[in-house]
Write a structure and sequence with these properties.
The structure is a single chain. This protein is of the alpha/beta class and 260 residues long. α5 (188-205) links the parallel β9 and β10. It is 33% helix and 27% strand. It has helices at residues 63-71, 114-124, 129-142, 158-170, 188-205, 216-222, 240-245, 250-256; strands at residues 6-8, 14-16, 23-34, 37-48, 52-56, 81-84, 87-88, 99-103, 176-180, 208-213, 225-230, 233-238. α2 (114-124) packs across α3 and α2 (114-124) runs parallel beside α4. It is built from eight helices and twelve strands. Bound molecules: adenosine-5'-diphosphate (ADP) and magnesium ion (MG). It comes from Rhodobium orientis. Keywords: ATP-binding, Nucleotide-binding, Transport. One of its GO terms (molecular function) is transmembrane transporter activity.
Amino acid sequence: GLNERQMTTEDGSVEAAAPRPARILEVNRLVHTFGDFTALNDVSLSANSREFVTLLGPSGSGKSTLLRILAGLELPTRVDALILDGHDVADVPANRRNVATVFQHYGLFPHLNVLENVEYGLRVRKVAKAERRQRALRMLEQVQLADFAHRNIAKLSGGQKQRVALARSLVLEPVILLLDEPLGALDEKLRIDMQVELLQLQRSLGMTFIYVTHSQEEALTMSDRILLMNQGRIVQEGTPEDMFDRPASRFAASFMGMEN
Ligand code: ADP
Ligand code: MG
């Protein structure tokens, strides 16, 4: 997987370069305010390499704000440490962090075709054309869109667009992929198919995913670990089983048992 930073040796075998630390993300005591409103209150969390971690909580609980801070799109008001892949990035903006984000609104370039969209970030990073193309095509295969490489973005379905958005992020080989309600715009049948696909992709790439959702069903199905948020705090964390069987508060019990 990508997290092993594999290198191919002369005899064609693959060996791992310096392995990533097992603890890929650590956030200690994060506070974020908007004016006098505290959106995130003393939030600490961590994620291990290859882990699927879900930030789950009702609308307004601070999930997107936390994700934007992890992405570097917003700098936190206060944090003791924000360690990403062994480096403190608390003050490092988005363009210098090796993370990628997928939002519900795909933000694809409508005037570029599928392949060009996936290549775009590599072009910005000045990756040579041949390598760019090869990496983009390989990633399109991973998301089962190889046959659509030259298709116009406007001609794709919602699910296909979301897969292009995924490929466009993953091709950059981020340390962590951040996903903010990525399936929110899809209808139910497609959403369930995409849950399975996303999980398979995460497993096969061996990448760390931080996944935001307000759907307890989605969190229970997909996560290695769930961080349950309410009013700017992480109120409980655990495996899906823990969260469902042993909710630690009335809020957790009602939220985890909620029908969607
Ligand atoms: P979630 O993603 O869980 O729905 P958000 O992180 O978007 O929650 O928002 C958390 C709280 O912070 C909400 O009350 C929201 O209104 C507030 N908030 C988010 N962004 C801003 C902003 N730019 N300015 C002021 N308040 C904000
Ligand atoms: Mg949100």
